[in-house]
Amino acid sequence: MFDKFGQDLKLKWHQYLYASLASYGSLCTGMSMGWTSPVFPQLASNNSPLPRAPTLQEESWIGSLLVLGGLLGPLITVPLSNRIGRRLIVMGSNVPLLLGWLLAGVATNLPTLYAARIMWGCATGMQFATVPLYIGEIAEDKIRGSLSALFLLFINIGFLLAYAIGPFSTYWGLTATGGILSLFYVPFTWFIPETPFFLVYKGKIDEASTILQKLRGLSKDVVQSELDGLQAMVAREFRVEPSVKDLWATRGNIKALGICVFLAMLLQLSGIDVLLFYMEELLVKVGTRISASDGTIIMGVVQVITSCITPLVVDRLGRKLLMWTTSLGLTIFLGIIGIYALLDSHFKYNVESWAFLPLLCLIIYMILFTLGVGPVPWILVAEMFPVRTKCLASGIASFMCWLAGFVWTRFFRDVAASYGIYTAFWILAICCGLGFIFSISPLLPETKGKTFDEIQDMLNNRTKEPKPEAV
Hints:
By secondary structure, this protein is mostly helical. The protein is built from 23 helices and no strands. About 50% of the residues are buried.
């Protein structure tokens, strides 16, 4: 077994290398997303770079503006993806990423900090829209799942670094660490090649063949069949330039877009960004007795471990099964946190013996989200749409995902302040409950193990003609 693994690695190490180099940027954006959790207490301390402590409203803007900046990602990548290529967009994400860390490092007022968060959001949106597409186009079928998991793994490592360094460092120490780590992404993206698909799309057949040989570790003759397949697919799917009208050209495309947009918004309405951005504060508010910094580190470790096993589960279990089981689980455990917070903060009951419950529920929440509600919407985007409309569909789903995330991260703390943290968690539970109802309904088809034609038949409510029986 190990000999076979060693032989595969020797042939395919370029795929692992380039996927890792491209995914490294998500470590940097993961740090920027988790940055708010340890930084908010520091902004209220004597070591803050700001002249005064920000108000609750101002802190909500600091948290939510990253998600608002994420809306810029699809707006940039969708029009440019088939014009300048995946590699240049990934390289271009360095500009807002580094600018964000620079602005955060020199910030002495809120507008500069707001601008830093928007820049980070723009970089995050660009990477979310492009890096998974890049990896999918350089990877061969057998290892596409494991290579795609690297993107999620690096994000969660970034969160863990922010959670682990922030409580034991100053504002400037954490920000400088993030900036220095982000500098490495510049040479990393310089070394990655363009994808074979885009090169074929642009008619650069010889260059595409050279890249394929390097990625597969095989000779020109051996990769020729794959190259021929790419050429045939481009000739078939891109005879005319794709347009937004293609998304509603058929009933199946309209249904697929509705499914993917709803699930992408559910991803945010389940509260994931709220929990990741405000982790330390939430652990204090729900009444857990463990220190907030220790709790966030534990959550970060859980995220990293779970992201390692996610591809093993997602590739083996059905999408529909994963969606309804994980959304049901999120509904239950978010509801339990709400009940605990109600008893602790509102009715002032003695819940000392159950002090472990909020952190335990949040850990289970993170595991369930990473296994189902988080990855499944993007798997469905890849499976439900033809190649010519996949980029457009992904862009629309991403845009709506970021929009829902902005609304919720902006107003979550207002709801918690006005109506109690328990009410805010119950709203999250209701959103996940709606996702559960949708997932068990006939509206969500099972796509695991089905060809694209079979999926299109389900979406268009077509039934195959029965074969005539032999007489």
